[in-house]
Specification:
It is a single chain. With 205 residues, the chain is an alpha+beta fold. The chain has 2 domains: 6-68; 73-203, Beta Barrel (OB fold (Dihydrolipoamide Acetyltransferase, E2P)). Helix content is 47%, strand content 21%. It contains 5 helices and 8 strands. Strands 1-2-3-7-5 form a 5-stranded mixed β-barrel. Strands 4-8 form a two-stranded antiparallel ribbon. The chain is elongated, with a radius of gyration of 34 Å. The model is unreliable at 56-66 (pLDDT under 50).
Amino acid sequence: MYYDNKFKFYIKEYSTQIVVGIVCFIIVSCGLFVHFKVSDNQANSTVTATAVENSVESNTQTSVAEDLSMLPEQMRALNAGDKVTVKVADVNNEDGSILIVYNNQRIKARLIGVDFSEMMPDTFVSMSQELVGNYVDVAFDETKVENGYAMIYVYSQKDVLYNAKLLKEGKLVLDSGLSRKALEYNTLAESQAFAKQTLEGVWEQ
């Protein structure tokens, strides 16, 4: 058919393709808009999350620094594994924490690597008899203070690790949350393994 108007001819012949092209253009444009919008939101979320994480880390570091103030200056300067002599003043019969005295300053402390949730009934009595009133050496690991308590290894007579002694006798169990990187991890784990093998204390059947 002859068209006297080329515009009408093109409309007639290519109207379907033109409509399809317009629809495709709109779909692609919407897709790109959504893509960039989502990417922008994700970037903002990442920035926000990072800022919150940094803030939490900063607050945690501040809290640790404040916690260390409970320790005498000489103790704060100790490296992990360095020993210092203290006197044991008391054993708490409710949670197993101990009270140590260093340079006339009383410090609440917990034994590293032991868990009092499962223990023998006479554990606190034994601790009181063996520790209270005696001088012992104590050492820190990488973390010196946790939840308001000095976290310590206790070395009694002949440099015996008292934390491990309690485990070896089956008085209580190894702290499942103790890091394998802890200075005395192997000694503590081996002590519990011995108690299990020989059916000592809590492992007795």
